[in-house]
């Protein structure tokens, strides 16, 4: 069986919560999630005023915020999810490298007015390959991964869904 394709958001969710990843992949969308997408697109509109090339759809497979010389760029509101942001950026760099395009990544956080560089090297390449393989593993699970309580849950779109379901399961 051919593996399903995964994208940058899958890797972002993989880093945050395996259950969120699984629910998202099954198309279980929450209203609050569309607010987050809207926030992201407004932020994208305002970011990179000097750049000519904003948004780059690569092979209809994934979309990058902007290209700035040797860098690809992503802008986020805050660095609260920086591990997930970093993994998502590594995914884009790895996908580009597989297509013969070598870039570095810049993650900009508007709230903290900070920018971080992300690069592919032997270690990060291994890390992203492993994360992609494990993401596929989660998506192949037949049952929804269990709720693992963490501080992030309260701001997650699936919060009421997860915690209502959890009460039912107990
Ligand atoms: S509420 Fe918590 S457990 Fe549920 S999907 Fe979100 S992060 Fe995962």
In words, what does this structure look like?
This protein has a 5-stranded mixed beta sheet. The model has no long low-confidence stretch (mean pLDDT 86). Helix 1 runs antiparallel to helix 2, helix 1 (8-16) runs antiparallel to helix 4 and helix 4 (82-98) crosses helix 5 (122-140). The longest helix is centred in the C-terminal third of the chain and has 19 residues, at 122-140. It is built from 6 helices and 5 strands. It is globular, with a radius of gyration of 17 Å. It is of the alpha+beta class and 170 residues long. The protein has helices spanning 8-16, 18-25, 31-46, 82-98, 122-140, 159-169, and strands at 54-58, 62-68, 71-76, 104-109, 114-118. The protein has one domain (8-165). Bound molecules: iron/sulfur cluster.
Please give a quick description of this structure.
With 170 residues, this protein is of the alpha+beta class.
Helical amount: 40-55%
Q: How are the strands of the largest sheet arranged?
A: 1-2-3-4-5
Quickly count the domains: 1
Rg over C-alpha atoms, rounded to the nearest angstrom: 17 Å
Question: N- to C-terminal separation?
Answer: 35 Å
Number of helices: 6
- The overall average pLDDT, rounded, is 86
Strand content: 15-25%
- Residue windows where pLDDT falls under 50 for at least 5 positions: none
Please outline the helices and strands.
Blueprint: H1 8-16, H2 18-25, H3 31-46, E1 54-58, E2 62-68, E3 71-76, H4 82-98, E4 104-109, E5 114-118, H5 122-140, H6 159-169
Parallel strand pairs: 3-4
Antiparallel strand pairs: 1-2, 2-3, 4-5
Helix pairs in contact: 1-2, 1-4, 1-5, 4-5
The structure holds iron/sulfur cluster.
